[in-house]
Amino acid sequence: MAVDVGGTKVEAALVASDGALLDGSRDRRPTGAGSTSDELAEAVRAVVAHALAALPDGDTLVGAGIGSAGPVDLVHGTVSPINLHAWRGYPLREQVAALAASVLPDAAPVTLRLDGVSLALAEHWVGATQGVDNALAITVSTGVGGGLIVNGRLLSGGTGNAGHIGQIQIADRPAGESAWAATLEVIASGPNVVAWAREQGWQGERGEDLAAGYVAGDEIAVAAVRRSANAVGEAVSSVTTLLDLDVVAIGGGFSRVSDDYLDLVRASVQEAPVNEYARRVRVVRSGLSDESPLVGAAALVWQADLLG
Amino acid sequence: MAVDVGGTKVEAALVASDGALLDGSRDRRPTGAGSTSDELAEAVRAVVAHALAALPDGDTLVGAGIGSAGPVDLVHGTVSPINLHAWRGYPLREQVAALAASVLPDAAPVTLRLDGVSLALAEHWVGATQGVDNALAITVSTGVGGGLIVNGRLLSGGTGNAGHIGQIQIADRPAGESAWAATLEVIASGPNVVAWAREQGWQGERGEDLAAGYVAGDEIAVAAVRRSANAVGEAVSSVTTLLDLDVVAIGGGFSRVSDDYLDLVRASVQEAPVNEYARRVRVVRSGLSDESPLVGAAALVWQADLLG
Fold it and tell me: Which InterPro entries match (chains A, B) (predicted)?
């Protein structure tokens, strides 16, 4: 059973050993910054109940995997998603374990990880980084997140929060601003790119407008998209220099703002004056679908031998 | 047997299972940018011969570890140290294996790693990060280098070059410069801090002068040291955000430029507006001595179960 807790929705489904979702098992409930803790807990209960009810007769549940928006605290099994204000130190692992207790065999794992970390495992399991020992999965969307495979294993970090690439510094500080005003997410995420374009005098309002402006050759739209992709490329170069990665898979809605977004990222990586080993990294399109948060949560069980 | 190949010297020694160098086994030969490939090979041969000759009767060599200035290429067992121009793709592992063949038992390991990576393993073996599963070792000196322990194991990366923290971007780009003019090493290493201070009108010439100026309260010297420590702190925050580290150990000559250098680094880490988990990292003084490159090379053999 896979559970995904995000800032706008909670989902659950049953996922088979090949990464396929079981028909009829997927359910979704909305969440939001205004949700109370009880409402969030009820949403989890409802989607889990729906998924478990779809377990075919004769099939056995082998475990439960939970991907959650972060930060998480694996030491205590709790989550404190930035955009779900009512949950601070919420014992999500314990709640899911209790909900599934009646159908889970004894000693079956109930595993919690950050959503970006789970996604990196999904990418390694059925996506674009299969067979790769050192890989980064990046999602460029409302925010910019990530997850890492190193030494052939998933990297969770001391408390489960490894992979937060959106919060590393890029050398692009606006005059007079703190260095932390120049993190990858601040420069490259969809809403932040739109905001930057509007500061330059652009009249659009959303990522879709930016996509249209890019195709039409609008000067500011083109500059804004390039600025985002360039920042992603610089972050990839920094992280690849630090970790000596083989492959970086890029997904997320905003990475599709232009057909050549990945080409722009690749150009940035190739132009970086770094050591040769850091330029060998392959930048590829994510091989995952919109089911990926659930596939990632399931991978925590099916690919448990890769957990760090 | 431990071998360390650096930009200014080659060393070898015998190292016991507790990390102690055997009396009389350590030897050193100078190297430099002008050395020919034959001169470098002869230096390696000489220090290895000296070390092997010190093997006490009845003692057995269990393996050879080699730490080298980078980049290295573990796929091919070669090294291309930036400051040793004559060696590009030099088969160092093969040379050391041949030199030690007569005294090495069959199947004994001959292991090559980047010097910073070896140092991180030494820090984990006998230094300041013992027992820590997610740790970074940083050396602030003529350059800025590093090495990583993640998931309780050494991180080598796809070709052996993980740990190059000196080449990640910091958000401190000088106006008009490329983003890559703002890497940690460019801002924080000893010679670069001295150069920056001189650009501000400071009259000293070396790190020692900067140390004296800092103690005397010279305004530019104080600003220069703080700028270096602050950049190290920002890099630590970026990397800790990405990798969720437990401990960062800092060593190297320039990290002793002021008594409070580590306090300045810690203040920078604490002031970073990052997620709470990234502020929990402990910044500690390296627990290693000037023997550390050799101890690190030996750790590649004695701590072989931690190799990634």
Answer: ATPase_NBD, ROK
CB–CB of B170 and A179 under 8 A? yes
Structure tokens at A202: 């652009």
- When pLDDT is cut at 50, 70 and 90, the band that residue B181 belongs to is confident
Contact flag A242-B169 (C-beta cutoff 8 Å) = no
> What is the topology classification, in CATH, of domain A128-285?
Nucleotidyltransferase; domain 5 (3.30.420)
Residues of B in contact with A238 (CB under 8 A): 167-169
User: CA of A265: how far to CAs of A82, A188, A231, B163, B165, in Å?
Assistant: 28, 11, 8, 23, 21
> Percent of chain A having pLDDT more than 90?
90
The per-residue pLDDT for A176 is: 79
**What is the fold of A2-115?**
Nucleotidyltransferase; domain 5 (3.30.420)
Strand partners, A30: A9
Could A280 and B159 be called an inter-chain contact, meaning their C-beta atoms sit closer than 8 Å?
A: yes
pLDDT at site A7: 86
| CATH architecture designation of domain B2-118+291-306 | 2-Layer Sandwich (3.30)
Q: How far apart are CA B298 and CA B21, in angstroms?
A: 10
Q: Would you say the C-alpha torsion B15, B18, B23, B29 has a positive or negative sign?
A: positive
CA–CA dist A274, A271 (Å, integer): 9
| Spatial distance between the Cα atoms of B69 and B80, rounded to a whole number of angstroms | 8
Q: Number of residue pairs across A and B with CB atoms under 8 Å? A: 174
The predicted structure's pLDDT at residue A196 = 96
- The shortest CB-CB distance from B133 to any of A158, A178, A241 is to A158
Residues of A within 8 A of B244 (CB-CB) are 156-162, 164
Q: Where are the domains of chain A?
A: 2-115, 128-285
